[in-house]
Structures are given as C-alpha cells and as structure tokens.
Write a structure and sequence with these properties.
The complex is a heterodimer of chains A (about 400) and B (about 290). Chain A is α+β, with helices and mostly antiparallel strands. Chain A has twelve helices and 13 strands. Chain A folds into two domains: about 190 residues, Multidrug efflux transporter AcrB transmembrane domain (Multidrug efflux transporter AcrB transmembrane fold, Up-down Bundle); about 180 residues, Gyrase A, domain 2 (2-Layer Sandwich). In chain B, helix 7 runs parallel beside helix 11. The longest helix of chain B is centred in the last third of the chain and has 32 residues. The chains are: A alpha+beta (about 400), B alpha+beta (about 290). Strand 12 of chain A pairs antiparallel with strand 5 of chain B, so a sheet runs across the interface.
Chain lengths: ~400, ~290
C-alpha cells in the first residue's frame, strides 16, 4: 500500500469474502452430499444382448424410461437416472435403506407371459392396463391385473380354448402360478396368486405397471450406504478437517509469527472461497472430497511458506523490510505457479478420466489448487501490504 | 522460529548413501509385491463387500464361525469398528447376501447391513484401464511441463523420482497389506502431482543460481548449495501438508485410513526424493555427459 492510497486489494478481498459467505450460509442446506455421506444406493446397470433381444440405442432409451417409472413408484425422492455411454444406465437413489429391494425392482426384466399346456405363449404383460395388490379371501396378498382392450380379447379367447386345462403364468421364464381354468374369463381381469409375501406382491405390481424391459439388464455395480454410516463419515471427516486445519494454523504462527497470522487469515478466506465455488458449481461432496479438502488445506499454505522464506532471505541479504516483501512476492510467484501446475496436471487427469472417488478427489484438488493460488498470493499480499506498517519483522 | 539455520549439508556428496537407502526400501517393497502382491479391493477385482453393524461387540472369529455353514471359502472377515465387521467375497448374488444377513441375524440378534459394495468385473476392468491411463498421461504431462519450463534432464530425473515415490508407496501398501482401492489410487495420483513441487523449488533455485554462478563452483556444488538454500521451504511445505494428513489418518475414521496411509508414505517418499534423487541424479548426468562446464 502506497501511503495515502486506498488498500484496494484488501477491500476487494473483504468484499469477495462477504459475497462468498452469503453464498455458503447455511452450509448444511446449501451443500449437496454424495450418497456415501447422506446414505443411498448407486446402481450401475448394463444392457446385455440376448439371442432374442439384441441391444440397440432405442432399447436403452426405453430401459431408462421404464426404470424411471419403476423408481417413481418406489417413492424415492430426487433419484438420478441417466444413460452412461452406449449401454449403461446409472441409477442413484438417495436415502434408500434397502438396496436389495431396489436392485430387485430395477434390474428385473419383468416379462409376464401366459402359456398353455404346450408352452405356447397366449399373451404377455405388454397388454396390461393395470396391476394392483389385493388380498384373496384367505387374506393372502395377490396381484390383480387388468388387461387393455386387445389383451382382454386375447385372454377371453385363451381361457375359452383352455377350459379345464392349466394356464401357466411365467415371470421371466419362471413359473409363478399355474391355475386351472374353470370357465372362460370375459371381463379382462385376472388374479395372480403365487404364495407371495406382501413385499413380493408389491414389487411385482410395480414391475407389471411399469412394463417389461425390452432387453436383459445386468447390475454391474451396486454401492449402498446406510445413512447412519454416512453420518459417521461426516463426523469423522469434520473432526479431521478441524484438527488438521488447527495444526496448520498453529504451525504457521509458531514458525512465522505475525506473518503466520496473516497466512492463517488467508487460509480462512481459502476455506470460504473454496466452499462458495464448490456450492456454486453444484458439485457433490463425497468422503474422498472431504479428504481432498483436508489435504488442500495443507497445500494452500505452501505458497505462503515459499513467499515468507523468500522474504526472510531477502531481508537477511540486507534489503529493507518493504523491499524484501516486494521481492519475496515477485520472486516466489513463478516457483508457486510452476509447482502448482504440476499438481494441477494430475488433478485434472483424475477429474477428467476418473469416476467415483478418483473424480471426487480430482474435483476438490483442482478447485483447491486454483483457490489456494489466489489466496496464497493475492489475498496474502493484500494483508501483508496493509499490515506492513505495524509488523516488525524478526529474521 | 528457525528449525534449520543456514544449513550446509552435503546432499550431493553423499548421494550414494541416499541411493542405497532408496534402493533398499524399494527392494523390500518389490519383494513384498512379488511374494504377497497387492491387497486389491473389490473396486479393482470385482466382488462383494458387506459391512454389518451389530448391537454388541463382536469378534472376527465369531463371525467367521457363524458363516461356516455357507459356501464362503474365499471370503475374508475384517473388523471395521468394535461393533462392525466387513465381509469381502467374490461376487455374491442378492439371495446369497440375504442369506448372510439372515444367518448373522439368527446368531447375533439384531444386525444391520450398513454398506454394500457389489462390483462386477467390467467395472473393475474399467478402473484398471483408467488407472494406467491416468498415471501415464499425468507423468507425460509433468515431463513435458518440466522440460519446457526448465530443462529436459531435470524433467527426466523428476520422472525417475516420481517412479521412485510410486514404487515406495506400492511396496509399502503391499508390505502392510493395505487395501488397494479407488481412493488409494486417487491418493497415488495426488502424490504424483504434489511430490514434484519440492523438486521444482530446488530446480528453480538452481536456475537462479546458475545465472549468478560463483567463480570456481562446480555444478555439483551449485546444486548442493541450492538444495541447502531451499531446505527450510522443502521441509515446511511438506510439514504443513503432513499435519492435516496425520489428522486424517488418526481421526478420519476407518473409511479413509488406507487413503491417508498412502498419502503419508507418498509425502515422505516425495520429499526424500526431491532432496536426494532429483537433483543428485541431474548432477550425475551432468558430470558424465556435461552440457555445461
């Protein structure tokens, strides 16, 4: 700061901090937590070819639609259902506590077939209008189905031709019920009794309502975390973050005295800017992301270390305090830039090529490096310039 | 405060000793890698991980016994916390998973499945492919950047140092049988990017000192002076990063333990190699095939 000039760097820094605080408060509501922290299921499906049903682009699109229908019926809040690459479908279900059931409902082909004694298909679930859970007279859950117009006709025809004979009801080629036709059924309605539990009956009704998948689908990845375990991770992560940051703060003060205090102020602004940008980008915080943040806190003061060491060196070489500061910032700048860019190369690689935790860490690391260059050099400069009058340097 | 006041240590002169230490550590790691290999997690090889929480303390042995009736020959049981265990196994169908849960429930009373990780071979193969690509591209990027900003030779010795760091980390992961998972891979990539920072600080100083070279000073002496002049920087930057990583290792919970272990080993190896490998190797190269007097 030249005497008489406004400390404009400091003013800009303070304004930025205030804006960032507005963006991040209240943090709890603003930050998006990953499934590993809030609990939930991450399920990756892959459409696979079968001789009857080869996969094409249209089929994958329909798979996405049908799975969306099924999940809507499961009643999950804010699910993500997205196509990934050519044949994969990613499903994310926040807060789901019964991943097995979710997989059961999502991954089943759910092809319903009615077959006569000789194994000829009479009609399929494609002609269904509705499917609901009801109870039979013994109080057992059954799934009652209603056919559409054409289905009703086909079903009437089938039951007329097969009076006194069984009609097999198959789900994905498994016989679930084999009732004997007592008399022709003209109303287009039927009941499937299969000795279901209530949950099985509910799942089946959902599957039948949403329709069968056009191709076979395999679950190739399922990662599910109970919300309670996610909460444990948050608690541990926060504790490590607070203690880790405190250790850095104390180290800087012990080693660099007043300059260290200024570095710590810059570090606080680093944390605020980091969160503000993270929230603005609508990025998702995962456990590796928290770990990445903790690591970048340690890296963020590296710029300060390089600058302060340089200032000390210049001062020892006989420069005045002010000239040492000037030279320290100028000469350390390229070193900071060069060393950060190599870390950035690795971080961008992780973010660009990776998925899951690798990508999560890549995002926080990239953001951390960029933020820390700004706070380590620019914000620190603003603080040091402003307080230079009052700080007496001990070298 | 000053930890090291005007140090004048002979790093370049004692480089043979430093190489020997590095080679011994890497050799131990390599032997471990050959004998017991890496403890790959389900992320890499596929399979099923189930984490159960009980409402009392359980011993790993008890759980193992409880599961004896099931065909889980290739599975491992590991303690996660006093009331939680992890069962790792080759891929289990959801019926088999239900069965494990049922049996544990029968024996231990209330039991909660708090984590499932079920990874198919295709996903594991994707991760392996990504790991190799990311490591190679990152190394190439760093080599190109350092060669442009500095010189080709320190670029190459930096890459040698990074390979050194990666080998030390992999060796220690194998020696202590830490689980090699996707977050651990992420930690290794972080180390590749970060551990070169200290080398850059030294190289930067070498470049600066070359411009104002003292009369009669050999290249080796100049490099050694540069390492000494930047020593407090090298030590402090890594200390400030190690402190939070230590907090993570101790307080961050079981989920991040292998990740923080990897970072810690990597940071130590990275600093060591910045001081004892990168520049001394550069001196070695210069002395054998001098580019400058």
């Amino acid at each position: 700061m030249r005497r008489g000039n406004l400390p404009w760097r400091l003013i800009v820094s303070v304004v930025l901090v205030v804006i960032s605080l507005v963006v991040i408060i209240p943090v709890k509501q603003k930050i998006r937590l990953g499934l590993d922290l809030q609990g939930g299921s991450h399920i990756l499906l892959e459409c696979v070819d079968t001789p009857e049903a080869p996969v094409d682009s249209d089929a994958v699109k329909r798979v996405v639609e049908i799975i969306r229908n099924r999940i809507d019926q499961l009643g999950v809040a804010e699910p993500v259902i997205a196509r990934q690459g050519e044949r994969r479908v990613l499903v994310q279900l926040p807060g789901v506590t019964d991943p097995q059931r979710a997989v059961e409902v999502i991954g089943r082909t759910a092809l319903l077939e009615f077959k006569d004694e000789n194994g000829n298909t009479l009609l399929t679930g494609a002609h269904l209008k509705n499917a609901q859970v009801q109870y039979d007279r013994f109080g057992r859950p059954v799934v009652s189905i209603a056919f559409d117009e054409e289905g009703a006709k086909l079903f009437a025809q089938a039951t007329t031709l097969n009076v006194g004979k069984p009609i097999g009801i198959y789900l994905d080629d498994n016989l679930i019920s084999n009732p004997v036709v007592q008399e022709p059924i003209m109303g287009g309605e039927a009941q499937i009794t299969g000795g279901f539990t209530l949950e099985e009956a509910q799942n089946l009704a959902i599957l039948l309502r949403a329709g069968a998948l056009p191709v076979k689908v395999e679950v190739i990845e399922n990662r599910s975390v109970e919300p309670s375990l996610g909460q444990d991770s948050i608690t541990h992560g926060l504790r490590a973050a607070v203690v880790g940051a405190l250790l850095v703060v104390v180290f800087m003060i012990i080693y660099y005295g007043w300059l260290g205090v200024l570095a710590d102020l810059a570090l606080a602004s680093f944390a605020i800017f980091f969160l503000a940008i993270f929230i603005s980008l609508r990025a998702t915080l995962t456990l590796p992301g928290i770990a990445g943040f903790i690591v970048t806190v340690g890296m963020a003061v590296d710029a300060n270390v390089l600058i302060f060491e340089r200032i000390k060196e210049e001062y020892r070489a006989g420069k005045t305090w002010r000239a040492s500061i000037e030279a320290g910032f100028n000469k350390a700048f390229h070193t900071i830039l060069d060393s950060n860019i190599t870390t950035l190369i690795a971080a961008v690689m992780m973010f660009y090529l990776g998925s899951g935790p690798v990508r999560g860490l890549g995002v926080t690391l990239t953001l951390g490096i960029i933020c820390s260059m700004f706070t380590g050099i620019w914000v620190t400069r603003a603080l040091v310039d402003f307080f230079a009058e009052w700080i007496k340097f001990e070298a | 405060m000053e930890l090291i006041k005007n140090p004048n240590l002979n790093f370049v002169g004692n480089r043979r000793l430093a190489y020997t230490i590095s080679i011994i550590i890497i050799a131990v790691g390599l032997i471990s890698l050959l004998v017991q290999g890496l403890n790959y997690g389900v992320d890499f090889v596929g399979g099923t991980l189930l984490q159960f929480r009980f409402n009392r303390e359980v011993e790993v042995e008890e759980v193992r016994e409880a599961l004896e009736g099931l065909d889980l020959a290739k599975s491992t049981v590991q303690r996660f916390s006093p009331q939680e265990v992890i069962i790792r196994s080759p891929k289990l169908s959801s019926e088999e998973q239900d069965e494990v849960e049922k049996i544990l429930g029968e024996i231990f009373g209330e039991v909660e499945l708090v984590r499932v990780e079920d990874v198919g071979p295709a996903v594991g193969a994707d991760l392996r492919r990504m790991a190799v690509t990311a490591v190679l591209v990152a190394l190439l990027g760093i080599l190109v950047y350092v060669s442009i900003r500095f010189e080709f030779r320190p670029g190459v010795t930096s890459i040698v140092a990074l390979a050194h760091d990666a080998l030390v980390v992999l060796g220690m992961l194998s020696l202590f049988q830490r689980e090699f998972s996707a977050p651990v891979l992420a930690a290794i990539l972080t180390i590749l990017g970060y551990s070169i920072n200290d080398s850059i600080v030294v190289m930067d100083r070498v470049r600066e000192n070359l411009a104002l070279r003292k009369k009669g000073e050999t290249f080796g002496e100049l490099v050694n002076r540069s390492i000494n002049e930047t020593l407090s920087r090298t030590v402090n930057t890594v200390l400030t990063t190690i402190l939070p990583v230590l907090a993570l290792l101790i307080l961050g919970g079981e989920m991040l333990r292998d990740f923080s272990f990897t970072l810690l080993i990597g940071l130590i190896a990275g600093t060591y190699s910045s001081i004892f490998v990168v520049s001394p190797l550069w001196v070695e190269w210069e002395e054998r095939k001098p580019l400058r007097r």
